[in-house]
Inverse folding.
């Protein structure tokens, strides 16, 4: 058995992904017919709107998480930084 066949047999999910990728490439290269445009155009527009909304929600959530993390990190640095500064002053005074 060749290494490629062994890989595909051991990783069927990879075969599915490869098939989807080939299908997407072929679908992107083949021109859209008038029938497809008429029947699928509104669906495509709705999916695009939903995807944009979902992306905006993810970005907004990520922004919130980032701001919370930054705030917590700043508070931690302020708390531990003051303690560290006090420890360093003590060391230098003793030394």
């Amino acid at each position: 058995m060749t290494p490629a066949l062994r890989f595909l047999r051991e990783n069927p999910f990879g075969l599915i992904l490869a098939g989807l990728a080939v299908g997407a490439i072929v679908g992107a290269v083949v021109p859209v017919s008038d029938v497809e445009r008429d029947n699928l155009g509104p669906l495509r527009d709705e999916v695009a709107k939903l995807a944009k909304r979902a992306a905006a929600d993810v970005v907004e959530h990520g922004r919130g998480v980032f701001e919370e993390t930054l705030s917590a990190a700043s508070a931690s640095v302020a708390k531990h930084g003051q303690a560290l500064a006090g420890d360093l002053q003590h060391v230098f005074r003793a030394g």
Q: What stands out?
A: The chain has a mean pLDDT of 82. DSSP finds three helices and no strands in the chain. The chain has two domains: 1-30, 33-95. Residues 33-95 form one domain.
